[in-house]
């Protein structure tokens, strides 16, 4: 596996060590392989670890099979994939509701399998959406970029924005929910607000529109990534999402009205700002019917 790219103009001069460790966020084990095997070339020449690299230099990284063993998975149906963006290292797709991001068993077919078939190689999940939730999902196309994207996610440098249609009229334009979330001991499928034993969770909510039928369209930004975080916070504060089978069981909506609308981050290799938005046909249709 070999990758070649040009160091972006916006990057200041730095050592090879700093470039790999701080800029590319390459894990220590992989940096060790690159150094020992001399598998990093700058302008097609071997380099010392403390040599300086600068904007415009061509960087080539080489990985052996033992560095990143190939992972085989079952292929899905490429026709089920709605591509939003793709390059050499990653792909962003618009997931439909009712489909798992990845299977729980090796023989279970989910979005990951469909995306891998679409790309023609094994892909890797960077973040997931609940099965009932539609919207933008990021996948790594190779095991080299996966830990780099995971580090960006951990550092909260991948911004995710959701739209939700909820019961009730939100009187405040902006709200911040910081309730801790834990497991429901009586129903393993559910999460609940648990201020004593739960994990810290923070959701920023902005009211986008009020409808005549006493529902509200809201935008939610995640500062943490707990399971069912948006669904639990909105339900706990009296505004459950329409169509939510776990937290709004009396709703008559055909689908959960939660959609991952926007995904933004800085590409770790090109340093270009990537920002994408997408809606689904079913979300828009249900939105119009409820509005």
Describe the structure.
This is Pseudouridine synthase. Keywords: Isomerase. GO terms for molecular function: isomerase activity. With 291 residues, the protein is an alpha+beta fold. Among the domains are: 2-62, RNA-binding S4 domain (Structural Genomics Hypothetical 15.5 Kd Protein In mrcA-pckA Intergenic Region, Chain A, Roll); 160-260, Pseudouridine synthase (2-Layer Sandwich), CATH 3.30.2350. It has six helices and 18 strands. The protein has helices spanning 16-23, 28-36, 111-119, 145-154, 229-236, 281-290, and strands at residues 2-6, 14-15, 40-42, 45-46, 52-53, 58-62, 83-86, 90-95, 124-125, 134-140, 159-167, 174-177, 181-183, 191-193, 203-210, 215-222, 258-266, 273-277. Strands 7, 8, 9, 10, 11, 12, 15, 16, 17 and 18 form a ten-stranded mixed beta sheet that branches. The chain has a four-stranded antiparallel beta sheet with strand order 1-6-3-4, with no helix packed on it. The model has no long low-confidence stretch (mean pLDDT 90).
Short recap of the structure:
By secondary structure, the chain is of the alpha+beta class. The protein contains 6 helices and 18 strands.
Q: What is the level-2 CATH architecture name of the domain at 160-260?
A: 2-Layer Sandwich
Order of helices and strands: EEHHEEEEEEHEEHEEEEEEHEEH
- The rounded Rg comes to 22 Å
- Helix count from the secondary structure assignment: 6
Give the CATH topology of the domain at 160-260: Pseudouridine synthase
Distance between the termini: 51 Å
Summarize the main sheet: 10 strands, mixed
Helix % is: 10-25%
Strand content: 25-35%
């Amino acid at each position: 596996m070999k990758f070649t790219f040009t160091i972006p103009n916006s990057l200041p001069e730095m050592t090879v060590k700093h470039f790999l460790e701080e800029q590319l966020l390459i894990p220590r084990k992989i940096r060790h392989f690159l150094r020992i095997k001399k598998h990093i070339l700058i302008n097609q020449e071997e380099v010392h670890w403390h040599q300086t690299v600068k904007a415009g230099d061509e960087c080539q990284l080489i990985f052996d099979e033992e560095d990143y063993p190939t992972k085989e998975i079952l292929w899905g149906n490429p026709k089920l994939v709605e591509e939003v963006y793709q390059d050499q290292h990653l792909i962003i797709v618009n997931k439909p509701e009712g489909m798992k991001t990845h299977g729980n068993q090796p023989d279970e077919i989910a979005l990951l399998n469909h995306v891998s078939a679409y790309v023609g190689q094994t892909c890797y999940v960077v973040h997931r959406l609940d099965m009932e939730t539609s919207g933008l999902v990021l996948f790594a196309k190779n095991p080299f970029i996966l830990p780099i994207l995971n580090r960006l996610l951990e550092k909260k440098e991948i911004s995710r924005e959701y739209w939700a249609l909820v019961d009730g009229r939100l009187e405040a334009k902006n709200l911040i929910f910081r309730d801790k979330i834990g497991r429901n001991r009586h129903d393993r499928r559910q999460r609940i607000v648990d201020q004593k034993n739960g994990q810290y969770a923070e959701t920023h909510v902005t009211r986008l529109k009020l409808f005549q039928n006493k529902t509200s369209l809201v935008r939610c930004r995640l500062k943490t990534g707990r399971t069912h975080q948006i669904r639990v916070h909105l339900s706990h504060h009296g505004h459950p999402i329409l169509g939510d089978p776990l937290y709004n069981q009396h709703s008559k909506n055909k689908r959960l009205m939660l959609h991952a609308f926007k995904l933004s981050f800085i590409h770790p290799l090109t340093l270009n700002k990537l920002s994408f938005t997408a809606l689904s046909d079913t979300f828009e249709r249900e939105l119009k019917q409820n509005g």
